[in-house]
Amino acid sequence: MSAEPQYPMRINKYLAGKKYCTRREADEMVKKGRVSINGRPAVLGDKVSERDVVDVKWRAKKYRYFAYNKPRGVITHSPQDEEEDILGTITLKNIFPVGRLDKDSYGLIILTDDGRITDALLNPEHAHEKEYEVTCAHKLPDDFKEKMERGVDIGGYVTKPCTVNILGDNTFSIVLTEGKKHQIRSMCGAFGQSAVELQRKRIVNIKLGRLVPGEYRAIQGKELSDFLKALGF
């Protein structure tokens, strides 16, 4: 469960916590005189108590959201030397990927210009589902599903319970509600397995569908409203 908000808190943290915007955007709104506390204009650094009345006067920004199929070999961001990142493969401007997929993994990633959703989607406290399909180098052991679902020690950390479906001798799907670095590869490694194919198929209710590698589509309509509702917006 999320911790109860601690008052008094800075106005930018308050606005971000209420999901109006990010803290940086909150600072800009305060500078522009669009925020008041108990009827007076807020200033940077102001603190808000639980009983204060905060008013925000602004025209909501129309954010953009896209489902993108990251190809294998493309990194999420911060390319080095000859590497290519996601933003180098698309024509969309002023957007960023939410979360990561390592270079050798591929599949669904969310692209957006809405900084509000980053913590809402990635913070493990919120336990949002992400589904993957994995192919290992060797046949899976008979107790693979049972032990994976119960939790696996990946170097001093025991993973949270998850859902696993065996799809073939060496292929399975897994639904996680957390996202440690290289978690699935490490979980497979606990069984002496090497994940040779790792594809993300779903994030919350957003599905990869028929997107080909390098292709993206807009998330809109009911799909978008259901997604944002799941994130608390």
Describe this structure in words.
This protein has 233 residues and is an alpha+beta fold. It has three domains: 9-56, Roll (Structural Genomics Hypothetical 15.5 Kd Protein In mrcA-pckA Intergenic Region, Chain A), CATH 3.10.290.10; 65-123 and 206-230, Alpha-Beta Plaits (2-Layer Sandwich), CATH 3.30.70.580; 129-203, Alpha-L RNA-binding motif (Alpha-Beta Plaits, 2-Layer Sandwich), CATH 3.30.70.1560. The protein contains six helices and 14 strands. Strand 7 (96-98) and strand 8 (106-112) form a beta hairpin. Helix 1 crosses helix 2. The chain is elongated, with a radius of gyration of 21 Å.
The CATH topology label of the largest domain is Alpha-Beta Plaits
Distance between the termini: 18 Å
Question: Would you identify the regions where 5 or more consecutive residues have pLDDT less than 50?
Answer: none
The structural class is alpha+beta
Count of structural domains: 3
Mean pLDDT across all amino acids: 91
Instruction: Indicate the radius of gyration in whole angstroms.
Output: 21 Å
The CATH class designation of the largest domain is: Alpha Beta
Helical run tally:
6
Which geometry do the CA atoms define?
A: elongated
H/E order of the elements?
EHHEEEEEEEHEHEEHEEEH
Proportion of residues in extended strands:
25-35%
Helix share, percent: 10-25%
CATH architecture designation of the largest domain = 2-Layer Sandwich
Question: In CATH, what is the homologous superfamily of the largest domain?
Answer: Pseudouridine synthase I, catalytic domain, N-terminal subdomain
Largest beta-sheet characterization: 9 strands, mixed
Structure summary, number of beta strands: 14
Domain RNA-binding S4: 9-72
Enzyme class: isomerase
Family: Belongs to the pseudouridine synthase RsuA family.
Keywords: Isomerase, RNA-binding
